[in-house]
Design goal:
Number of domains: 2
Helix content: 10-25%
Strand content: 35-45%
CATH topology of the largest domain: Lipocalin
Structural class: mainly beta
C-alpha cells in the first residue's frame, strides 16, 4: 500500500483567507492525484480499525478538514450527507460540512456549516445528521492522514483525506469538482469580452449549468442587468468538460447546441465567482460572473437556497484533451 505524505501541524483553527476571493497556489491535491493509483490498489479488508475511545476521537479531530474523495467511493449504497459534502470536520462533537465550493475556506472559518453531531465509542463513529439521522461507521486507517468510513447497513465505504486548512489546496478543489462549481450559481453573466473576431457567441450574455445532471446547459441573449428570475433561456444543449493533459489549472468546455452548433473553450477559474472562457475558433476571451448563489443546506439568510437542496456528488469520469497550440 502506498504511504501518503503528511502535511500540517497539530489541530488548530486556521483561517483560509480574510478577503476570501484570491485563490491559492496548487499544493496538496497534485500529491493526491499522483498517489490515487496506489491508494485505490490497497486491500481494504486488511486495513486496521482505529482503536476505540480517545484514540479514534483524536484521529478524527487531528485534521481541520477531511476531503471526501467521492471518486473512490465503493459499495452499493450511499449516505446522503457524505455524498453531498466536499469536506467534513469533527470539532468538539459537532459535525461540520462544506457542501458548497463557493465560499469554501471562508464559511464557518473554513469548517463549513454545522450539520449535526457525532460521538465515538468502541471503535465506531456515530454521526447524527440533522437530515439523515443516525449513521454508524467503522473507521479504518489507511495511512496517517487517510481513513475509510464503512457503513454496513448501506454497504458503502467513503474515503477521506485529512488536511490542515492552511495547507489545503482550495484551487485544485475547484478544478477537480468543476461541474459542481458551475452549478452553484443560477446564472453566469458575461461581464467582459476581449479580443478576437465577431461571432454569434458574442450575443449570448448568460449561461446556466443545471444541477439535475452534469450534462445540460442553457444560454440567454437577454440584455445585461436582466433579473435572473425572468431570463429567457434562448438556447439549450449538452455540455462536456475535459481534463487537459499536463495541466492541472485548465479545463476544456464544449457546448453542443440542440441546433447542431458546437462551441469549444478553454475554461479557467479566476476566483469563486468568476470564470474565463477562451474561444478557440475566434480568439475571443470572455469573463462571466456568477449570479444567484445557491447554498446547499442553508445556514443563514443572506444567500437564498432556491433549488435542488438534494444535490449529490457523483463519480465523474472525464475524457482528456491536449491543449491546443495557439501560435
Amino acid at each position: 500500500m502506498g504511504v501518503f505524505l503528511i502535511f500540517g501541524t497539530p489541530f488548530e483553527l486556521n483561517l483560509y483567507h480574510q478577503n476570501r476571493r484570491p485563490m491559492k497556489p496548487l499544493k496538496l491535491f497534485i500529491v493526491m492525484l499522483v498517489m490515487v493509483p496506489l491508494f485505490t490498489s490497497c486491500v481494504f479488508e486488511e486495513d486496521p480499525v482505529i482503536e476505540r475511545g480517545i484514540i479514534l476521537e483524536n484521529a478524527l479531530s487531528d485534521y481541520d478538514l477531511w476531503y471526501v474523495d467521492i471518486h473512490s467511493t465503493t459499495g452499493t449504497g450511499e449516505i446522503p450527507f457524505l455524498s453531498r459534502a466536499f469536506t467534513i470536520s469533527f470539532v468538539n462533537n459537532t459535525l461540520y460540512a462544506n457542501n458548497n465550493i463557493v465560499d469554501i475556506g471562508y464559511t464557518g472559518n473554513g469548517f463549513g456549516i454545522p450539520v449535526g453531531s457525532y460521538t465515538t465509542f468502541d471503535g465506531l463513529l456515530r454521526a447524527n445528521h440533522a437530515i439523515d439521522g443516525y449513521q454508524d461507521f467503522e473507521v479504518f486507517q489507511l495511512s496517517a492522514n487517510q481513513i475509510r468510513l464503512y457503513n454496513y447497513r448501506e454497504n458503502v465505504s467513503y474515503y477521506l483525506m485529512g488536511y490542515q486548512s492552511n495547507n489545503f489546496d482550495y484551487d485544485q478543489l475547484f478544478y477537480d469538482n468543476i461541474e459542481y462549481f458551475l452549478q452553484e450559481y443560477i446564472a453566469w453573466e458575461k461581464t467582459t469580452t476581449m479580443g478576437g473576431i465577431s461571432n454569434p457567441f458574442d450575443a449570448e450574455n448568460y449561461l446556466q449549468f443545471t444541477p439535475e445532471n452534469n450534462t445540460t446547459f442553457y444560454s440567454s441573449q437577454d440584455p445585461f442587468g436582466t433579473n435572473i428570475g425572468i431570463l429567457n433561456w434562448n438556447y439549450v444543449g449538452g455540455y462536456e468538460i475535459f481534463d487537459v493533459i499536463d495541466s492541472e489549472d485548465l479545463k476544456i468546455l464544449t457546448l453542443h447546441y440542440d441546433g447542431g452548433d458546437i462551441e469549444e473553450f478553454e475554461l479557467s477559474v479566476l476566483n469563486d465567482e468568476t470564470i474565463r472562457l477562451y474561444q478557440f475558433n475566434t480568439g475571443t476571451t470572455y469573463e462571466f460572473s456568477g449570479r444567484g448563489f445557491v447554498q446547499y443546506l442553508k445556514s443563514d439568510t443572506k444567500k437564498p437556497a432556491v433549488r435542488n437542496r438534494n444535490r449529490k456528488r457523483m463519480k465523474v469520469k472525464r475524457r482528456t484533451k491536449r491543449k491546443r497550440n495557439l501560435k
